[in-house]
Amino acid sequence: MEALRNIAIPSDYIFYILGGIMLLGIILGFFKKITVYRDFKDLGLVYLLLVIPFGIGLLTSQFGGSEKIKQAAMWAVIGLDSFILILIFIQTYKDNSNIFATVLAFYVKVFLGILFTFYLFQFIFPDRATSEQRRKSRAFSGMILLLLTPIVFGLVRNRVWDYERKINSR
Question: Whole-angstrom Cα distance, residue 170 to residue 164?
């Protein structure tokens, strides 16, 4: 076991490698070499990955219920999120049509979308005990959102809303 422990990659290096891959995807997305987000509808699909579990969790906590209901809600979350992940991957492949660019764009898309949505929820619903802790949590989440918003907006290729596109095409 000691020999295997010496061979294993430290978790710091894995963090640096994943961060470097994320940075590469963001840079390629800014220069439009890969398509991370096709439009705002694609961005909304990624946000649904956290909104669905939050919404179903909120519904089950409000209405209570037995263990069967909670287990059914968990399977509904897993099913819906799996379906959305597959749909996002297919759309990302259609946009990039290269498997390496697709995997890179998918990694950046899902990670940034989940990170943004998580801090948005933390900003709206801070879960701390005292008002001072809630204020600090909200301030930190606001700073993260302030940094993430231009990055996510820069990765959207077509910045025209779907509704405006339909009106202008008439």
Answer: 10
Of 37-46, 84-93, 104-113, minimum mean pLDDT range: 37-46
Cα distance between residue 88 and residue 84, in whole Å: 6
Q: Which residues of 64-81 are buried (b: 16+ CB within 10 A; e: fewer)?
A: eeeeeeeeebeeebeeee
Rounded CA-CA distance 39/166 in Å is: 14
Please name the helix (run of DSSP H) or strand (run of DSSP E) that holds residue 32, with its range, or none.
none
Q: Which amino acid is at 127?
A: D
pTM, rounded to two decimals = 0.82
CA distance 59 to 85: 22
Length of the chain: 170
- Which tokens sit at 133? 């802790």
